[in-house]
Amino acid sequence: MRLKEQVCIITGGGSGIGRDAAIKMAQEGAKVVIVGRTEAKLDAVKAEITTSGGTALSCSLDVADYDAAHKMVDVVIGRFGQVDVLVNNAGHSSFNRRILNTTPEEVRSVVDSNLIGAFFCTQAVVPTMLKAKSGTIINISSLAAVTPGPFSGFAYGAAKAGVINFTEFLNNDLRNTGIRASVIIPGEVATPILDNRPIPPNSDARTMMVDVAETSDAILLIATLPKRSNIPELVIRPTMHRDMTGEVVELDD
């Protein structure tokens, strides 16, 4: 019970990495707040946690809505009195990924969910963490941030690069306040979101990717570190490099 009585907010908590992290944190004694857009998914994760004896609260909202993010944190503090951990995990990539076929709507949506949402949720929790002189902020980036290309898309890679920069900013801006920030930079992770790619990878390709469980284990590792220690950046790469030939849409397609 390494997170006993701690309050952990996980955005993008309805599926994939966020869902797995929420379940593991609840098993470690945390009071978990699951945030996302799809209420049905959030309720399913909440039920899974509470049925096992854990404590969970679900909040359906767009993390890029400044007022909604702050209202969510107000609700959490009113219910539990504190926020100990924030996991900025919400995000998605666009269907189109090349410079000439990605629409303005896709660009805004990707930047909002991956970067602006992390900004706003962090701004919402920092005041209560400053009062407590303690807090952990875990941001989820991607190797697309450091190895940009048409495979991952320009909007997603740029937004995830911003997440890395934002994490370093937090550690400088909040130096010696008791608040620590970490960024996890995974390679391809085998989550259901892969089905939304223009050319989804096959089952054999997915077995070579980083698993959801390994990424959520990294989140748990950082969240349970003694307060005196921090991991500013953690990279997770697949051991084997797979052939991605045929998975990039050409500009004239």
Rg, rounded, reads 18 Å
Instruction: Report strand order across the widest sheet.
Output: 3-2-1-4-5-6-7
Count of helical regions:
7
**N- to C-terminal separation?**
52 Å
Account of the protein in words:
With 253 residues, this protein is α/β, with parallel strands linked by helices. Helix content is 42%, strand content 15%. The chain is built from seven helices and seven strands. A seven-stranded parallel sheet has the order 3-2-1-4-5-6-7, sandwiched between helices. β1, α1 and β2 (31-36) form a beta-alpha-beta unit. α1 (16-27) crosses α7 (212-223), α3 (66-80) runs parallel beside α4 and α4 (104-132) runs parallel beside α5 (154-173). The chain is globular, with a radius of gyration of 18 Å. The model has no long low-confidence stretch (mean pLDDT 93).
Question: Any descriptors?
Answer:
7 helices; 253 residues; seven-stranded parallel β-sheet; alpha/beta; 15% strand; single chain
Task: Briefly summarize what is shown.
α2 links the parallel β2 (31-36) and β3 (55-60). The radius of gyration is 18 Å and the shape is globular.
Q: What are the SSEs and their pairings?
A:
Elements: E1 7-11, H1 16-27, E2 31-36, H2 39-51, E3 55-60, H3 66-80, E4 85-88, H4 104-132, E5 135-140, H5 154-173, E6 179-186, H6 203-206, H7 212-223, E7 233-236
Parallel strand pairs: 1-2, 1-4, 2-3, 4-5, 5-6, 6-7
